[in-house]
Amino acid sequence: MSAGERRRALALLAAAVFIVAPAVTSAYLTLGTTVNGRSVTTRWTPPIKYFVTNRSVDGVTANQLQTVVAQSFGTWAAVPTANTSATFTGFTNAEPVRDDGATVIGFQAHPELDRTLGVTTFTLDRTTGALVEADIFLNSLFDWSTAANGETNRFDVQSIVTHELGHLLGLGHSLLGETEIRPTGGRRVLGKSSVMFPIAYAVGTTQDRFLHDDDKAALSVTYPTPQFLQNTGSVSGRVTLDGAGIFGAHVVAFNTKTQELVGGFSLNANGEFAIDGLTPGIYVLRVEPLDDADVSSFFDGDARVELGFKATFHSKLVTVPYGGFGESVEIKVTRK
Ligand SMILES: [Zn+2]
Fold first, then answer.
1. Roughly how many angstroms between the first and final C-alpha of the chain, as a whole number?
2. What DSSP line would sit under 268-284, residue for residue?
3. Is the pLDDT at 274 greater than 50, yes or no?
4. Is the pLDDT of residue 26 over 60?
5. For residues 85 and 73, what is the distance between their CA atoms, to the nearest angstrom?
6. Dihedral sign (CA 272, 276, 281, 285)
7. Which of 49, 91, 135, 322 has the maximum number of C-beta atoms within 10 A of its C-beta?
8. What is the 171 CA–ligand 1 centroid distance (Å)?
9. Ligand 1 center–CA 25 separation, angstroms
10. Rounded distance, CA 308 to CA 203, Å?
11. What are the domain boundaries of the chain?
12. Distance 28 CA to ligand 1 centre (A)
């Protein structure tokens, strides 16, 4: 495979320590862990303090990287329904590696990861589940750019950093994207309704600098403002196949008035799902199998994700109330 082809369809790998607790029944995939037998959402106590590596790569200086990282943090911090903030501490010669107590963002060469643009790793406080450190590397195997409108044949640093910062803040992947299989291997993105979709746009594209409703909802559920909790509601229920619950079904809620599109998954063997942070109103629910990205981008390798069913619309419209849950729905799907 030529380098040119290799560079087009790439997975954004989450980390080795990327924990998605299947017992958590909240929306999307936020990071979770188990503390004393209880599932907790992993999150920071803001502000997050971070360093940027003092190293330039071809096309991007350390100063340019720092400017872009600050802009991307600003993009997430600007979500009005969530409370997050981050502070640049300084440049460092330290590498973005785990367990040194410092949150470091920078370039690193990983020729062995020839489909991975960036990786975020985490360190958790095991007694509280709180995030205490995270590190991001961008793979300098690839060509990068910080040009205002992107640059042909180079990946946009701000787009990829915005995705990785979503992980750093505690978000997992979203399945709100469409892909096609490339004849030469990998997937090509046709469109995304979430920056947290695990596959990047091609080189020269800057669309992932901008958050979608799904990204904003995921962040706001993790770091909610009091108004957000009052002004949004949830939808919940089960996805069943032949009468039994199924794990890993992707549930998409579409607001018929605002066009808001937010996704979640059924996260246990009973097929239970819950999508929080929705603008109250009337929703269409659609369930589909996880077939636009690798299952391993979403769930642990040993998770038994059901893929053998047809994409299905729920037979009724669903009302999301102000605060809390409306009626529980059962969405019945049929075998492919
Ligand atoms: Zn990712």
1. 34
2. STT-EEEEEEEPSEEEE
3. yes
4. no
5. 8
6. negative
7. 135
8. 9
9. 20
10. 33
11. 3-219, 232-333
12. 13
pLDDT tens-place string over residues 76-131 = 999 999 999 999 999 999 999 767 889 999 999 999 988 889 999 888 887 887 88
In CATH, the number for domain 232-333 is: 2.60.40.10
State both tokens at 288.
Answer: 């589909």
How large is the average pLDDT for residues 163-177? 92
Q: Which CATH superfamily is domain 3-219 in?
A: Collagenase (Catalytic Domain) (3.40.390.10)
Question: Whose CA is closest to 296, among 248, 251, 261?
Answer: 248
The CA 212 to ligand 1 mean position distance, Å, reads 15
How many whole angstroms from 115 Cα to the centroid of ligand 1?
Answer: 12
Q: Tell me the β-bridge partners of 249.
A: none
Closest by Cα among 151, 195, 202 to 180: 202
| 222 contacts: CB under 8 Å, gap ≥ 6 | 30, 41, 43, 82, 169, 170, 171
Q: How far is the CA of 164 from the centre of ligand 1 (A)?
A: 6
Structural Rg of the chain based on CA atoms: 19
pTM: 0.86
Distance 134 CA to ligand 1 centre (A): 14
Query: 264 Cβ partners below 8 Å, 6+ apart?
Result: 26, 27, 28, 250, 251, 253, 273, 274, 275
Candidates 155, 258, 172; CA nearest to 221 is 172
What's the 82 CA to ligand 1 centre distance in angstroms? 20
More confident residue, 11 or 216: 216
CA of 181 to the centre of ligand 1 (A): 19
